[in-house]
Amino acid sequence: MDPLKAAWDATPAPHRTITDLQGIIRKHTSPVLKRIRTQMIIEAIGYVAFLLVYYDFFDGDKKPFYLNALLVFSVACMLANNVIGYRMATHPGEENNLLDHMRQKLRAIRIYAAWAICTKVLGFAGVMTFLLAGIQWNGSKYATLFALALIMAMQVYANWKIWRGRIKHIRQTVEELSR
Amino acid sequence: MDQPAFLDTIQQHQGILHKLCRLYRDTREDREDLFQEMIYQLWKSYSSFQGHARISTWIYRIALNTALADFRRKKPHITYTDQLPELPTGSHGGTSPQQDQLFAALKRLNDAEKAIIALYLEDMSYQEIAEITGIDENYVGVKLNRIKSKIKNMLKL
To answer: Which of A100, A109, A135, A140 is deepest in the core (most CB within 10 A)?
Structure first.
């Protein structure tokens, strides 16, 4: 392995000055967290804006209280989903070794994946229940509802595939470290 | 928190952080993001560093935890062939053909193997590798032998 070690030791690495490093920690964030936070803020603005206008735009005053409550709860769940995802990304797990950290991550990511997918489905169902309550049904409206449900199902399937891939990758690392 | 001491320590150990970034990420942009993420997580955890372990052990643990646990990372579709590509002679982006071949071989290992071999190449003892990775100390040698022969096969050493 000597040639390997020699090649490894001689690999040039960019040199960061103290000022460069100071600049990184002064930002109080990392590029990954910044991206997640930006996405979270944009989505949160959308959700809050929807909650502010739905009462007037979608006849909230003409619908029963439980439907209004269901809508607010559905949107709040989607908002909470983003916050939980962000919190999960900020935790470094410094007190654990790699195997324990990955096991912990695997548990957390399984729960979060289930929660994220359920929130999406329930959120969509909640919003649709509110919007469709009291509507006069006809053929074209059924077709629209079917198309929307199909799009939602495809989104959920794509989401599930992404989470399955992530879980599989972390599980493989845990298995490899435990074997 | 003692920021100057932290920055001094990181400056001394930044070489391994850059090597880990190169090992676990494929594009320059992703490596830069991971490097910044590692520095951020190290700084966040610095106050909880008790000094029970060597500072390098602590740095490697946080750096590896950060590199491996980012489940959102983008994975470009890469098809690995049985043979490593022939590399041109002479310097390539500041690295020698040997270094490029080494990293090409290391990148074909799985995440756990990459961590173990990187720690070995950094002259960590079996005990330290066990402490950082959580693998049983008696088992580190077995794993290392497997990884080494895998690399030798790839590099045809």
So the answer is: A109
Taking 80 as the threshold, does the pLDDT of residue B98 lie above it?
A: no
Pinpoint the residues of chain B covered by CATH 1.10.10.10: 92-157
- Among A73, A87, A70, A82, CA closest to A45: A82
Residues of chain B with CATH 1.10.1740.10: 1-74
Residue of A nearest to B16 (CA): A13
* Smallest Cα distance from B129 to chain A, Å: 10
CATH number at B92-157: 1.10.10.10
pLDDT in tens, B107-137: 999 999 999 999 999 999 999 999 999 999 9
| pLDDT tens sequence across A108-142 | 999 999 999 999 899 889 988 988 888 888 899 89
**Nearest CA of chain B to the CA of A46: how many Å?**
23
**Interatomic CA distance for residues B20 and B34, integer angstroms:** 9
Indicate the class that CATH gives domain B1-74. Answer: mainly alpha
Tell whether the model's pLDDT for residue B64 goes beyond 90: yes
Long-range contacts of B47-50 (CB under 8 A, 24+ apart): B47/B1, B48/A94, B48/A95, B49/A94
